[in-house]
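User: Structure please.
Assistant: Input sequence and predicted structure:
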Amino acid sequence: MRILRDVRGVSALEFAILAPVFLTMAFGTLQFGIAMNHYMVLTNAAAKGAMTFALSRGTSTPYATTTTAITSAAPSLAAGQISITVKVNGTACATDAACSAILVAGQSAQVKATYPCDLTVMGVNYAPSCTLSAETAQMVQ
């Protein structure tokens, strides 16, 4: 009977059971916050890139200037992991010569930037194929 009334160690047992759950929730919240920050930075960088691209008509390096503007606007992201797609009225261009040829005033200049997100919490990646994406369009000036 005395053993059933002995409550020593119950707090330690409860802590041992609930601590992993709370730690997983805390680390998950932290990882989600980091991913959200990366998304906001990427969105801002895409907007900066679209503005730069739209104002690059008549220059010899619109594509290089745009990619530099995007990577400069996102210093907290790994520049090598940012994937950039540039289009003018839906026509993609990936070189300075191609972009210079199709940049015409009044056309829509679109910039899409993608970045891989990592949602690993306590060694388990809950979204292995997660990719952050931001797309912005500006009118070519």
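DSSP finds four helices and six strands in the chain.
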